[in-house]
Amino acid sequence: MRTLAEHTLGELAALVGGSVEGDPTLLITGVASLEDAQPGEITFVAEPKYLLTLKTAKASAVILDRVMPADRPAIRVDQPYRAFATVLTSFYPSPRPPASIGTPVALGERVHLGHEVVLLPFVTLGDDVTIGDRVVLYPGVFVGPGSSIGDDSVLYANVTIYERVAIGRQVIIHAGAVIGADGFGYVPGPDGQHLKIPQVGGVRIEDDVEIGANTCIDRATLGATLIRRGTKIDNLVHIAHNVEVGEDNLLLAQVGISGSCHLGTHVTLAGQVGMVDHVHIGDHATVIAQAGIVKDVEPRAIMAGSVAMPHRIWRRVQAATPRLPELLRTVAALERRIAALEANQTHAMNETEHG
Amino acid sequence: MRTLAEHTLGELAALVGGSVEGDPTLLITGVASLEDAQPGEITFVAEPKYLLTLKTAKASAVILDRVMPADRPAIRVDQPYRAFATVLTSFYPSPRPPASIGTPVALGERVHLGHEVVLLPFVTLGDDVTIGDRVVLYPGVFVGPGSSIGDDSVLYANVTIYERVAIGRQVIIHAGAVIGADGFGYVPGPDGQHLKIPQVGGVRIEDDVEIGANTCIDRATLGATLIRRGTKIDNLVHIAHNVEVGEDNLLLAQVGISGSCHLGTHVTLAGQVGMVDHVHIGDHATVIAQAGIVKDVEPRAIMAGSVAMPHRIWRRVQAATPRLPELLRTVAALERRIAALEANQTHAMNETEHG
Amino acid sequence: MRTLAEHTLGELAALVGGSVEGDPTLLITGVASLEDAQPGEITFVAEPKYLLTLKTAKASAVILDRVMPADRPAIRVDQPYRAFATVLTSFYPSPRPPASIGTPVALGERVHLGHEVVLLPFVTLGDDVTIGDRVVLYPGVFVGPGSSIGDDSVLYANVTIYERVAIGRQVIIHAGAVIGADGFGYVPGPDGQHLKIPQVGGVRIEDDVEIGANTCIDRATLGATLIRRGTKIDNLVHIAHNVEVGEDNLLLAQVGISGSCHLGTHVTLAGQVGMVDHVHIGDHATVIAQAGIVKDVEPRAIMAGSVAMPHRIWRRVQAATPRLPELLRTVAALERRIAALEANQTHAMNETEHG
């Protein structure tokens, strides 16, 4: 992708709150990784181990922390990786289609559209839908009756929002995600059939949430499934009815969270983690990939394994597990040696007694 | 959500086949959980442990079993949770759009539409499609050539039905689900490439099945993939080609079932369970979350773990697993003590012999 | 499905490079499995164990290898299963809609359409999109600005292709798949918030790749996520940013691959396998279902387990695991017997000393 902008080294330094080392009028035409950067572009080094790669990089400038040695013009900051993200944004502003209402779209009754909204073709808005300012809805998006989307949110193609879902501001929802499908709730019928429990609650997504492609967040039976401010959710995640996810969580790909779970703030669930229903995870807890959570997790705990245990124990269990077959053989051998000892001792004692 | 109806306590009791305790003319304006119920609303207690919460509930009436003490007007039934589901349905009838053909929709040749069908905008029906009475198809639904949808079924937004898929009556398919994509079948080619085996079979979904959001059910290579009556499937489930799922199963979120598996009736697979191909699961069997099924499962068995084992063994293995590192150390120490015993015994016997 | 063609046994033999046993003018009206085949149809036996079933099959002809005994007219080939796939293709040619541009579709500026393209209704193509010859795009497909689709590729309903994605020739993408959504990349902000790292790279899908329903392949942060020629991907797979998947891989359902992983050629990942980020898998390696890969895998290795270990060790660990609780008890008993031995020995030695 060709960048859409040029900046001087000094302008970029001001943008990230850093200091310039070298010529501040140096023109920077793009940003790239150490390996890919071309002359004219800026790159970054987040960890000292990459300084060796820097030596052979073609980049004309580099973002560094306050202490790493620079072999070319540099911007010095406290956190090079964060500064890199900011510089990226300045070179690649998010590609926003111009405000317009596509043809055809299908709008229900009493729909309220904010300023500078983008509705691409084949969007459907049900009755009583509210769309905030500068919202972008890509083709195939469906928003059910009574739902609302806050200012500056973007819903990519083929996203489905069921009825009575409230979505905050600056929310990003990737293609194919489904928000507000019925929770999975049944009660046994007289003949062993599963009778559906109507799922009449809603979903509330707060500001600054990002939701990955084909992720599913179910509506509550009663009340609301809730995703709090700033939480980021990866692709193909399942969040069941009546779950509450706290602020600033990271939920990685293919995580599955059962009904009525409650996650605190700054929780991280790594890929393919599963949780049984009605479990509470404390603030700042981390769960390692593929773990299975079956009971409450303490704040700041690190859990791993299926069924999950504290990470420091799990690490030792992991190291010990491949030795289990050998251990069985060792114990069988010990058993024989003990039997021999016992036989000999009995024999010796008999000897002593009768000697 | 505001409810759409009001009922007297007596009407609700008649609806659920229960008996009234208190004034049968009491007007009930809604239904809610113990915590959320407001004056005028009815709540329910399914288990005695929630009776304490009932004391402080604001609800004007409660659904109870035949023996729990009532502190306010009540409906007594054998199964309070089932009665609650029924009452919910009476207050929140499923929101069905009025019968209509949206604009635009795309209809193939020889399409047959039943009575009072709802086709929302941007629906596509291929040639020779049959749609039953009162079917609702949300925006973005695609139904491929030769497929049929039975009476009273609802397909939510952006559901894809490939060609020659037969869907029964009162089936609910949530947004983004895909029924009838090609099974994953290849045969090694001369140069190690994977040659596609045409997937020319179909899919048959019987009556009263519910299918979760973004779930995928593949078509058969030959014959049909089959989901029998009354089975309920959660979000993001994968069902491969030529699988047969029996009646009244519960398949929870992110379950994966490989090709040609066969599940009996009333099977429950908990979240993220996986099955290798060609495995049979007996009637009324249950598989615990994240388990991996690699061979046939007996009727009524409860299985757990990856690789799966009987649940009663798995529970003990789970309890023992964190002790494995300690066990290794214990056995090493025992080995040293036995070596010492052996040395001493040899020494003692030498003593005795030469004593 | 009724087949669309009839062939003589001799024609079919020529098609698969086999030799006829019996009447080459025998008319074959279809192809089916051993159990389902009807008179007039041809079936196949890939392994000797199915010869018993052949005896009762109604098929009028059979595909066999060079040595298995034939009880009816036969085609003899080296690889019966591959020949079966070819014969299937001849009876069921892929159902391709006639070339046409549906109504309505939404086309951006500078869109280039090849010859005999099929655009079904409700397709959206962004600006600067290039569509190759004979491409088929089903309803609800969205192709973002600057993306391209190679000749003879098919994208089923509701597939989403983001901007700047390059898709090769003869690629099949099943319904609901999402190619090019943002990678999951954040950097910690000053208040513990997660700041989005713009994902400005692309995705490149080479020729002859097949991608399953609702699978997600994210765009790169910088550079490109890459799926090489001939790789087949099942349903609900997650492939993160900057991953490179080699040629002729098989990635089964619900696999999850984290950022910057690199897979060699002919790698097989079975269902629900997960990989942490920045891991390399060597050529021809195989990973068993539900395994978790946390470090590099050697070429031709077979790995299993979460955390993964070599399959030959894992098999023994699996056999030993259910015996762990018993082992704990055995070791406790041994400990008591050793203590008794030690006490007796001390006693005996005291006896000897003081005897």
Layout of secondary structure:
The structure is a homotrimer of 355-residue chains.
Chain A: E1 7-8, H1 9-16, E2 19-21, E3 27-28, E4 30-31, E5 41-44, H2 51-56, E6 61-64, E7 74-76, H3 80-91, E8 100-101, E9 106-107, E10 112-113, E11 118-119, E12 124-125, E13 130-131, E14 136-137, E15 142-143, E16 148-149, E17 154-155, E18 160-161, E19 165-167, E20 172-173, E21 178-179, E22 186-188, E23 194-196, E24 202-205, E25 210-211, E26 216-217, E27 224-227, E28 232-233, E29 238-239, E30 244-245, E31 250-251, E32 256-257, E33 262-263, E34 268-269, E35 274-275, E36 280-281, E37 286-287, E38 292-293, E39 302-304, E40 309-310, H4 311-320, H5 324-354
Parallel strand pairs in A: 4-5, 5-6, 6-7, 8-11, 9-12, 10-13, 11-14, 12-15, 13-16, 14-17, 15-18, 16-19, 17-20, 18-21, 19-24, 20-25, 21-26, 24-27, 25-28, 26-29, 27-30, 28-31, 29-32, 30-33, 31-34, 32-35, 33-36, 34-37, 35-38, 37-39
Antiparallel strand pairs in A: 1-3, 2-7, 22-23, 39-40
Strand element count of chain A: 40
Q: Structural class, judged by helices and strands of chain A?
A: alpha/beta
User: What integer is the average pLDDT of chain A?
Assistant: 94
What is the quaternary state of this protein?
Answer: homotrimer
First CA to last CA of chain A: what distance?
A: 96 Å
Percentage of residues in strands of chain A: 25-35%
Radius of gyration of chain A: 29 Å
Widest β-sheet, arrangement of strands of chain A: 8-11-14-17-20-25-28-31-34-37-39-40
Number of helices of chain A: 5
Largest interface: A-B, 72 and 70 residues
As a percent range, the share of helical residues of chain A equals 10-25%
Shape descriptor of chain A reads flat
Low-confidence region ranges of chain A? none
Biggest beta-sheet profile of chain A: 12 strands, mixed
